[in-house]
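ok trying this again, last paste got cut off
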Amino acid sequence: MLSSAEGPWQGILLAEFGAGPVEVLDEAPLQHHLLVQLDHDTRFEWGNNGHLETVELKPGQMSFYPAFKPFTARNPQTYGFLLVALEPKSLLCSTQGMVEANHLEFTTQNAVDDPLVRGAALALREEIAAGYPGGRWYGEALAEMLAVHLVRHYTTEAPLLRPNDGGLAPNQLKRALEFIHANLAADTSLQSVANEVGLSPFHFARQFKRATGLAPHQYLIQQRVERAKELLVHSLASVAEVAQQVGFCDQSHFARHFRRLFGMTPKAFRQRSGRRKIVPQTA
C-alpha cells in the first residue's frame, strides 16, 4: 500500500501492507524486520524448528525478526501492519564506536509494547505520505535511533556502551559545518558527515543537536533555505531552479519549508525583497 523503496533513504525501508493471508515457511529475512500492527487484533502461528505457538498481536504492538534467523509464520487473515527493514551492515555502522561487544546476537520478539519502535514506524509512514519533506537525513536518522534501540534492548547480552557525553569538540563542529555547507545541494548521507568527525552517525547526530540545538536534518534544511533566500534576491533563477540549486527534490517541498521558516512563500519573499536586476556586461 505504501513503500519507501523508491525514496531517498539508504539502509532502511518502510512498507505498509493491508489485509490478507500470510504464510512464511522456514525463511530467514536478509534484513532485520520490525513489524508494527495497525488497527486490528490479529492471531497467527509462529515458530521455528517445527514447533509452532499461537501469538496474539494487538494494535500498536511490534514483532522483531532478526536477519538470518529462519522462522515460520501462518495467518489466514492478517490485518494492516507496517514493516521496517534495517540493513545489517547499516546497523553495525550505526553502532560502531558505542558497542564494545565483538558479536551481537539479536533475539526474536513477538507482541511487544515498544513506544519508540511504534513511533518511529508511524513517523516514517507520515514522511513517505508527505513526499519526504525531511529529505534523506530524516529517515536515516530514525534508522540510527532504531539501530541503537535494538542493540540496547533486544540482544542476548547487554552490550557495553561507551560513555560519550563530552559533545562535539570545536574542531569537530567546525569540520561538520564546513562539510555540510560545501555539500549543501548534494545528496550526502548522515554517515558521510559523521565520518568527517570520526563518530558513529548516532553519536554525531546526538552531539550535533547538543551543540547547535538542531538535529542534523533540521540544520541542513535551514541552511538550504537560507541559501535560497540569497538566490531569490540576487539571481534571475526561477523559484523551481532555486529549489533545485539548493538541494530540494522539487518546488513544493522547497515552498513548504520556506513558508514554515519565514511565514511566506518564496515568490512572496522575492516580490517583497525586490530581486536585484543583473544586467549582462557588454563587450
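PB: full thing came through this time. The beta strands are 2-3, 12-17, 20-27, 32-37, 42-48, 51-57, 62-65, 71-78, 81-86, 109-112.
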